[in-house]
Amino acid sequence: MGNVEKKAAVCGVCPGGCGVKVTLEDGKLSDIQPLSGSPYGAICLRGKHASEVVYSPKRLTTPLIREGERGEGRFRQASWDEALDLVTSNFLRIRNEYGPEAVASHSGRGAFEQSLLDFNADELVASKLLWPFGSPNIASVSSLCYASFGVFASLTTYGLRGKNLVPDLENSNLIVVWGANPVTDSPPFMFDRILKAKRKGTRIVAIDHMRSDIAERADRWVPVRSGTDGALVLGLLRVIINEKLYDEEFVTKWTSGFAELVDYVQSFTPQYVETITKVPAETIVSLAREIATAKPATIRTYTGLEYSNSGVQTIRAVYILWAITGNLDVPGGIYINLAPPLPFDKPNFPRPETKLPIGAEEYPLFYHLTGCAQFLEFPKAVLEGKPYPIKGLLNSGASILTSYPQTSLWEKALRQLDFFAVIDRFMTRDALFADVVLPATTYFENTSYQCYPGYVRLRQPVINPVGEARNDLFILAEIARRLGYGELYPKDEAELLQRVFSRKPELLNQLRANPEGVALPVPQRQYKKYESGALRPDGRPGFDTPSGRLEITSKLLADFGYPALPEYTEPIEGPVGSPELFKKFPLVLNTGTRIQSTFRSQHLNIPGLLKHQPYPEILIHPSDAEQRDINDGDKVILSTKRGNVRFFARVTEKVQPGEIEANVGGGSLQALEWSKGNANIITDIANRDPISGFPVFKALLCQVRKDD
Asked: Could you tell me if residue 585 is inside a domain?
C-alpha cells in the first residue's frame, strides 16, 4: 500500500452534501464513511460506491464531436477550444438566422451543485446562461418536478415558497407522510429524523397508493386510489369543518374563502369519497379527527402529489387542511422558516425583453411565477415551429429521454435540431444525438461550498479531475466568455469563493481553518409570524398574498383563469374518466418509483449499485399476477395505448389490486435490461395538470402480459 490519507470532505455523488470522511490511496479515492460528529454526516448506498462512480470506465473524460448520424453514437475526441468554439459559433449562427429565442437551455439534477445554482440559475435550477444572449428560453426539470409543490401551491395559498415550509418533526405528536417516501430521499436526513421521532413516541401515518418504504415503517398506512388524493383531502376537510374541529379564530382572522370551501366540500361525504378513493368512510372520519386533534401535527409532503390532473390544487388543499387545524407556524406543525441564505452579491443576468418563452401562452402562471420556459412545449417548437422555431439546445446534467413523457417525440425533436450540446459526466441517451459532448467533473473534483440550515462548509476537491473533465460552472463561464459576457461568471475557484464570501471574508478564513464546517448564527424561532408582520414586505400582519390573508380561494389563480378553490379533478385517463379505454387497459399505471441504488437514471452503469436491482421492475399484486399467469421474476410487457415496454415482474402486496407501479429511470445506455425499460415510452405528453403543465405520471391506464 502506498501513501494513505484520510480527510473530512463533502460527498460528491449528489448535491445533497453529506459530511463524509474519505480515504485516499496515492491520491485516489478508495473509501468513504460518514463523518462522525458532523450535524449532516451520513452516507447512503450510492455514496458507499462513490469510488466506482468517480473512476467508472464509462466516465466522459474528453470533449467529443459527433461524426456519425444523430443517435448513432459515433464521436471523435476534440480539444476544449475546438469543442467550445463549435458550441458558441453555432449558437451565434442560429441567433443571426432565426433570432436569439431559437436557442434554448435545459438543466437537471446533475446541475444542482451549490455554486452552480447560486451563480448561474434561478430558484428552479434553470441556467440563466442564455439570458444575456437574448433568449428567454431557459428551462429545467422544474417543468415536471417540484414547482407544483414548491412554487404554485404554496405561493397561491400561503404567499410563501415551499422551501420555507419545514415540518417540525422533533416536536410533533403526529407526522403524516403524504406524496413522499423519505427512505429514498437524497440525502436521507428527513428519514433519519422521522425514525428518531417515532422512537420518542410520535405516531407516523403514511398516505400512499402503495405500501412504500415509509408506509411499511408507519403506525398506519392509508392506501388511496392513484390520482384521487385531492378527493381524500376534501373529504377530510368536510369532516373537520362539519365537526367544528378547525381553529375558528385562525380561520376568521387570517383566511379568505372559508365560506366557499364549506359549501364546496359538502358533496365530499365520507361515503362518496370512499367510492372515489377506495379509502373506507370510517377511515376518512378517524383520520380527519386524528389530524385535527393531535395538536400538534406536521406533514412531510413532496412531489408525489404533483402528477395528477389536479396536482397543484391537491397540494393546496393539503396546505389548507394543515392551516385551519391550527398546525401552521406552531411548534410541532409546519414551521415557516425565513432564515436567509448566505449574503453574497449574485450577478445580474438581464432578462431578455424580446419574445415570451415557449409555454408562456399555454401555462401563463408557470411563466409568471418562474420566469422560465415550460419545457414540455419544446417538441412542438422544434417540430412544428410553434410559437416559433427552436433550432439549438444546451442540455446540462439532465436526461431528457428518460425523464419526459412519450420518448419517441423527444427523440424526433433532438434529431431535428440544427445544433445540440450536452454537458455531463457520462454518455447519456440524449448525448447520442448531440453535436458536442462536454465532460464535467464530479463534485469530488470541485472547489465550492455547501450550505445547510445553520451551517456552512467548504467543498474542497478530494481528487484531481478525471481526464480533461471540468467543473460545470466554469464550462458555462467559458461559453459565456466566448459569447461576450464572461464577466458575469467567476474566472476560477479563487474568484468563486471571493465573490461568495465578499461580504463576510472572515467567514471564509474560518472555513479554511475548519474543514468540517462552521455553525452560523440561527435566529431564535418565532412562531405565528403572520401575527407580527414578518411574512409581508410592508411589515403588516397577515400573509404575502393579494388579500393579505391565507387564500383558500386564490386570487392569483382566479386572475389567470383557474378555479380559485382547490377543486378536485377525476383522472382523465382512469377507470372513471375513460371507461371505454379501461375495458382494454384495466390496470392503473403509476410511474416514478425510486430505488435506493440509483437516482432516476443515474448510476445504472455502476456494477456495485446495479447488482441491487439489475432489472427494471413493475410491481404487481398477486391477484392481478395470477389472472395473467405471471410469476415473480417473469419478463412482462407493460402496455398503454401509446405503446409497449418490457419489464420484469415483482409480485407483491406492496401495491393494491388493480394498480401497477413501474420503476423510473430506464432507457439509459449502460445496463442492457434497463436500457429497454423506459416507462416514459408509454406515458402521455398531452395529459397534464392545467395549472403547472406537469405530466400525469401516476394515474394512467395500462395492461400487463407475460412476455412470450
From this structure: yes
Among 512, 527, 554, the domain-final residue is 512
Alpha-carbon dihedral angle through residues 221, 227, 231, 235, given to the nearest 10 degrees = 0
E strands along 224-312, which residues? 255-256, 297-301
CA distance 130 to 105: 7
Note whether 370 and 147 are within 8 A (CB): yes
Q: Are residues 42 and 97 in the same domain?
A: no
List CB contacts of 89: < 8 A, sequence separation 6 or more: none
pLDDT tier, 292 (very low <50, low <70, confident <90, very high otherwise) = very high
**Same structural domain, 431 and 469:** yes
Residues 610-663: pLDDT tens digits? 888 889 999 999 999 999 999 999 999 999 999 999 999 999 999 999 999 999
b or e along 52-74 (b: 16 or more beta carbons within 10 Å of the residue's beta carbon)? bbbebeebbebbbbbeeebeeee
Distance between CA 551 and CA 545 in Å, rounded? 7
The SS3 of residue 188 is coil
Give the C-alpha distances (Å, rounded to integers) separating 486 from 479, 480, 583. Answer: 8, 5, 59
Shared domain for 244 and 139, answered yes or no, is no
Position 356: which residue type? L
**CATH code assigned at 647:** 2.40.40.20
The CA-atom distances, in angstroms, between 302 and each of 177, 203, 314, 341, 624 are: 9, 19, 12, 22, 29
Spatial separation of the C-alpha atoms in residues 38 and 16, rounded to whole Å: 14
| Structural domain for 106, as ranges | 64-144+360-512
In a domain, 562, yes or no: no
CA 659 to chain centre: 24
Helix, strand or coil for residue 638? Answer: strand
- Is pTM beyond 0.90? Reply is yes
SS3 content of the chain, % helix, strand, coil (to 5): 35, 20, 45
CATH number for the domain that contains residue 320: 3.40.228.10
What are the φ and ψ backbone dihedral angles of 65, each rounded to 5 degrees? -125, 135
Are the C-beta atoms of residues 590 and 660 closer than 8 Å to each other?
yes
Q: For helices 270-277 and 281-293, what crossing angle results, to 10°?
A: 110
First to last CA, the chain: 52
In a domain, 161, yes or no: no
pLDDT tens for 129-160 read 999 999 999 999 999 999 999 999 999 999 99
CA dist 147 and 315 (Å) reads 11
Task: Return d(Cα 178, Cα 314) in angstroms, integer.
Answer: 11
680/206 Cα distance (integer angstroms): 27
Span 110-121, pLDDT tens digits? 888 888 888 777
Orientation angle between helical segments 281-293 and 229-242, nearest 10 degrees: 60
Q: Which helix (H) or strand (E) holds 48?
A: helix 45-48
Tell me, what DSSP letter sits at residue 444?
A: G
Nearest CA to 460 out of 418, 421, 513, 519 is that of 513
Q: How far apart are CA 480 and CA 489, in angstroms?
A: 8
Beta strand 165-167 pairing with 220-223: unpaired
Please give the distance of CA 362 from its chain centroid, rounded to a whole number: 22
Within 8 A by CB and 6+ apart from 368, the residues are 560
pLDDT per position as a tens digit, 338-373: 977 777 777 889 899 889 999 999 999 999 999 999
- What lies within 8 Å, CB to CB, of 343 at 6+ separation is 503, 504
pLDDT at 187: 67
Cα dihedral 201, 206, 211, 214 sign: negative
Name the strands in the sheet holding 392-396, side by side, starting at the edge strand that comes first in the sequence. Answer: 75-77, 64-66, 436-439, 419-424, 392-396, 103-107, 138-140
Encode pLDDT of 51-67 as tens digits: 999 999 999 999 999 99
